[in-house]
Amino acid sequence: MLRTSVSMLLLVAAxxxxxxAPPQGGVVVNLGIGVILSRQQQSKGGLPSIRDSLTQPVHxxxxxxxxxTCVVRDAGGAAVMWKRxxxxxxxxxxxxxxxxxxxxxxxxxxxxxAGGDVWVLVIKQSKPMxxxxxxxxxxxxxxxxxxxxxxxxSREVLPPDNKSDPSEYEFHMSKEAFAKNHNYTDCCIEANxxxxxxxxxxxxxxxxxxxxxDPEVCEPDFPAIVxxxxxxxxxxxxxxxxxxxxxxxDVCRGEYTVITDNIKTHFSCSAYTEQTLACIVxxxxxxxxxxxxxxxxxxSDTSLQVSWAPPYENGDTVTEVVxxxxxxxxxxxxxxxxxxxxxxxxxxxxxxxxxxxxxxxxVKVPAxxxxxxxTGLQPFTMYEVTATAxxxxxxxxxxxxxxxxxxxxxxxxxxxxxxxxxxKVKVPKxxxxxxxxxxxxxxxxTCLDKMCEPSxxxxxxxxxxxxxxxxxxxxxxxxxxxxxxxxxxxxxxxxALCQQLCTGNVTQIDFSYFKCVKHMTTFNSCLMQGYGVLxxxxxxxxxxxxxxxxxxxxxxxxxxNGDTVTSYILHxxxxxxxxxxxxxxxxxxxSPFLLQxxxxxxxxxxxxxxxxxxxxxxxxxxxxxxxxxTLVQDETDMEERWVDGPxxxxxxxxxxxxxxxxxxxxxxCSYDANMSDIRRLVATCEPELAKLVxxxxxxxxxxxxxxxxxxxxxxxxxxxxxxxxxALSLASTCLPYAGNIVxxxxxxxxxxxxxxxxxxxxxxxxxxxxxxWEPPQDGSNVTDYVIHYRKMDNTSMHxxxxxxxxxxxxxxxxxxxxSLDKGYVYDFFVVSRNDEGTSLxxxxxxxxxxxxxxxxxxxxxxTSPPHSLSVxxxxxxxxxxxxxxxxxxxxxxxxxxxxxxxxxxxxVFNVVETSLxxxxxENLMPNSQYIVYVVAKNKKGLSFPSETLxxxxxxxxxxxxxxxxxxxxxxxxEGSSMTIxxxxxxxxxxxxxxxxxxxxxRQETTRHMVTVVHNVTRDMNQISCxxxxxxxxxxxxxxRISISHVPHISGSGVTMAAKGDSVTLQCHVxxxxxxxMIFWRDLNGRVPxxxxxxxxxxxxxxxxxxxxxxxxxxxIGLVEEDEGDYFCxxxxxxxxxxxxxxxxxxxxxxxxxxxxxxxxxxxxxxCMDACSFFLDIDAVIDKPDCINDFDKLMKCAADGSDHxxxxxxxxxxxxxxxxxxxxxxxxxxxxxxxxxxxxxxxFHEGRDRLPGPPQNVKVDILSAHSALVSWDPPVKNPxxxxxxxxxxxxxxxxxxxxxxxxxTKITVSSLKDGTWYExxxxxxxxxxxxxxxxxxxxxxxxxxxxxxANANQDSAHVGVIVxxxxxxxxxxxxxxxxxxxxxxxxxxxxxxxxxxxxxxxxYLREVNMDHIQIPSGGHLGExxxxxxxxxxxxxxxxxxxxxxxxxxxxxxxxxGWKQEILHVPAQSTHSAASEVAPSLYEELKLGHDGAxxxxxxx
Length: 1498
Hints:
By secondary structure, this protein is α+β, with helices and mostly antiparallel strands.
């Protein structure tokens, strides 16, 4: 932050610089004087405007209603709020929003007519505490604000006596728009301001941003512009009241300070821009200008006559004129400067005696007079005289100065004459309480002395109350003298029980009243007040002559018993201090009183109490005043002093070179460093900041100078060349005060003495130590040396302070310190001193005072130890230790460090040497304790150790990761960018991996990883953050997001149906956000299909996917006019999509005749009623005799198609699913009773949708390793085929290979010569598949091809014989197995009551086909319920199905192919099904895009 010059202020106001301007001109800067609108906004119609708001200050008296008006034009829907500025917290407190009161104070409300432009903030029964800045804020873009100042005048504050009525000022308080019209162009012209820059000479132009010139161009004219802007008024009090620090008050005085890149010119004032301009604009309205035509006439060698003309502006409001006289030079023969005595300033007489306390005096003259005579001046002395006009609001700037010399060499020292002794004051008498008590029968001496004497009642004890309890009613009745003193007791905080004593109506007393004894002093005070013998409060309390260290307090005597006052008690405190206790000054004799030892730039509260012989009266009203800051004399003069002085030989840059400051940081090693370089290098040079500060201080103590220049206490250690906190933290705090501190450095290196060198102890006895040192080597002016020393103990061992318990001053470079205690350790250091201050200690030495023979130069002093060890950062495996350099060291000596560390459990320290003040200890054990300390090293040796630091490494915690955060949160658009934040915890720091839809995108070791992903696609909807730190189990957190995108539609393609059928057309829509969906009959004409009649339209969301929707159009009773194309259309905010679906009327009847099939399957005659053209299951569902024929009926009804997908959607269980593809069931009674109708319904639904099996499969051998498999399309629904799937394997093998094709042929390669293979094929579409064809066998090489179903007769006979033999063998094996099982059961019955041998783990495993996972080219045996042996013979296999019932293997011709296991949902609600990726062995349906089969799973 930079020091605010007028250039900064005007840049802010004009809106063209200082980073406050909008990108294209115009600015919105809101000050206490009104509202500054951008030119862009003003030129645009319809935007909110508050230019017409009344922004002049509002003045009301306490108790009246305050009305503050804000005019908002074209507010539209923007909210209007009233806020109040909180200067101490640098924030605004919301009072109202719209017409709603937000603050809890019911006195605030808003007056506003609906639709009107006027918003009035009303403050009922205003109080002085309501004074301040109120803000009218319009919540538009950008936000507009107007600032309104309210002053609530206390009714106790009366105007000066020489003014008859405060209403005289009302005219000046109500000048509308005066601030904006403040025009000082004439003044600028007289000051030779450039013509192009005259736009800055009118406030209105600055506020509106139409000055017509770049402020930087006019910077040379700013000194004159600012002087004219201030218009001779002193705005400093307002700036002080608004919290503007003294170093920023130059503009408030009408002065301008040029800011350069030099660090010395930079102060932190930008935060006070609004307050400064607000004070200026308000001040030119209400403050008087300076007195005119100042004239000084010398009357004698001790007196001057000063005269003037009234101010030109607001001269009629002036209450007094203050004449200031400053003694510049005395021309006496002895050449001494003019000094004055110790009198007090007179404030009212026309002819005044000079106050003999300082070289400057002020004389206050009433406004009705325009001259005064000042006497008692020093003869032959030059005085500079100025005059300042005051009114009730403030003052002008001093007039131009006039100098005069008292020319008669005759010294007159007037003495105040001693008055006569004051007459004796008659003290009011107290009521005769003792006589009253006697009259009421009280005779006990203690009760008469303690309870019947008002002056002694305050010392009553508990025993006195006990003794006098029988007469309590009489004694307190007499003490109260018939009055009720309870209001006073209540106001002074007495407990409720004790307040009864103050009424005098106490009938009895018990132990509960004993607590009132400690309040007897307060009780006595209320008695005295009620008697009317105490003085009332002092009146007219006021404070004048406020200086940075003192102020004069005035008051008038109390109105009641004022003549009995013997003294006064003054109470005062600093309001900004957290300590609320008042400081008390007693025995003050009278007004005025000089209150001294104040702190500069502080707010004080003060009040008085009068004292007489009977006690202390009521406190006066409280007065608050602010002490100013002290500015050192002109910088140029000070630089001349040190540049030309003897200390000018110090070279900061040479010091930096000696301490080996890096070359990159050398540009800022100068008192004239550029702020641009400092900002550029501050981060780079942070590790070497200690070296820079040491060289900048030059071994001098600059703290007093820094305090004078307003540096905060947190930065004072820098002024002593010491860094006690982290460098960057300290730099951020103190950088705004860089100019203050560097000026002190530059000034002090010439004025202050440098540090001593080569401090040694050359002799040690049992009671003394001889110290020897060399003077500073930089030519400093040293008057003497101060030796500091103290006795050390365990507490002070590591304390480093600039002042020790004992000091010895010498003028030589050696000192013998005596009277020391034998055997104790003492600490010594030496500083040089002159009239300007002291140096810093360059080294210190600790000596055990025991007689020791020293050789050579003795024992050398070394640097103080490093300090402030801390753990800068830590983890489970490392710790970063940081420390601060020694506080005592020579600025030019090179310092390195030794860091000692070890685990707490070990004995030996490890040593690390470094030149930096931080070091990382690595490869540590988690959750372990380490002991660390540091010593400094220079050419003199090692320092004492620093304090010992015990550091813990963190415990190792497994990684924990939060769900990813995605921005923008609700609107990630396909093709745009998104930002992903992964946050992980854990110790050590984890490695975070970002996965998007399963793909690794980024990996980094951190706790917060932010990744920006560009060109987002719709499949990037799964975001996962994965974290691992090597401890515990890695963790993953995921979030599914919705990618906004244009709708994407997939349709059902071509649907074949017969006339009169009902046809369902379906489209799947992928869209986010929600689309609007519609069916069109004509795309170009956009003719919609309307729900109703023969059309049923259903639009619904897919329950399993947020962005998936299903559009269904059902056409009832298909006719020729319904044939053709229909169009699914969907659109959202990002676009639209259209997909055609087609209906075609089947040209031929159904290819399957169920009656013929039933005859071929030998369906019994009683059940043939179901075998119509289509299966009529209702005809036989109630016939028990037909249950055995249901397998045959289902085979005919399935018509060669696989309807399992439809059956699964109807919650048909696994045990019944084989019926859905025409295969028999082992036990069908359950399925007949419960699921027959659902299965037959699926047969009807898929009749025209699902294809039949391919026809005429054949194989042509192409070579010894390849063959061409071909087939004809299905007879049933050939137009619905979307894909064919071909399976092949060596005969008897379990591993199956497969391939998909849209053609009716496929070439198979990589076959083995001489191996028998078998092929099967099935057709399918997105709704389901057909059954498998009959296997076709062939051998590569011999070109021998056979069908398992159509082998020659001989082969068939052989197969039958082999089958019979095998069947007999199997039956025999079963019998043997049963016998063995029964015996085993009897033998093992004692082992297991459950009948299961746990030794055989196979009994404990139940095969669940839902959990079987196989890779691509999975085992054919796992796809079927039967297996083929190596010789092609049938092998019976029993596999546990989903229902727990065994499934018999198929016939040899079907085994291994047709008995495919289907994954179906568990027995749950229908709505629980969702589409998931398929296992490779599941062959339920072909994917729409030909990528493979899918399945439904809950």
